[in-house]
User: What shape does this take?
Amino acid sequence: MDKNLEDIRIKIQKMAELAEDNGEPLGWFEELYETANRDSQDVPWARMEPHPQMVEWIANRPEINGKALVVGCGLGDDSEWLEDIGFDVTAFDISKSSIDWCRERFPDSTVDYCVADLLSPPEDWKNKFDLIVEIHILQVIPENIRDLAAKNLSLFLNNNGHVLCIGRLYEPNVVEQPSPPWPLGQFWLESKFEDLHLVNFTRFISENNSTGDFPSLPRFIASWQKIGP
Ligand SMILES: C[S@@+](CC[C@H](N)C(=O)[O-])C[C@H]1O[C@@H](n2cnc3c(N)ncnc32)[C@H](O)[C@@H]1O
Assistant: This one.
């Protein structure tokens, strides 16, 4: 990221505050993607490559395959990688401009890209997917609507399906950064998926963070599996 990251963060905070005041707390994502005019340097989370921890996690679990749902797919790098290694991928984002951008970047893609809102998802996604990927989504959804977003994630899982979450981890001793994003507590996360079986919860520090997004802050990669009927 060459553009001044601090300027982009200030812009995002202002847009997020305004959106909240206007009663559309997630409306700023469309504004950000639209005004970026296809310049990925204006999208602070754009890695332009699949998330390395997701890649490692999947590579170690060859038994997971089938239908994958990528939530808040951004510019599409995670969904394209999953499709390339054999998943049948549906990827969605609340922002139409982000989905248009994905289609332009990957014109020959077989990923099913669509505009949808995690807070009111299509009915026919229920019990349909073997893998749900949520990278940096719950942490950008304000607290008062985050519970519903987390609850909806597990509805998409079929029996034995996995949900994979990656994000900032809340730790009381870490100096708070301007929000969004809001770091997520381990207790909160585990309570949201208590009907599922916890597979792993791992804290990590992303030293080689290509987006320059606060590399020293604690993060988590966690997954749960739906077991039984
Ligand atoms: C921080 S970005 C992360 C994007 C991508 N997952 C990544 O790791 O690069 C959050 C993404 O979630 C999308 N998003 C936010 N709220 C959403 C919702 N309720 N439903 C679907 N997508 C949402 C935003 O438009 C944005 O693309």
Observations:
- The chain has a mean pLDDT of 93.
- The two ends are 46 Å apart (CA to CA).
- The domain at 45-225 is CATH 3.40.50.150 (Rossmann fold).
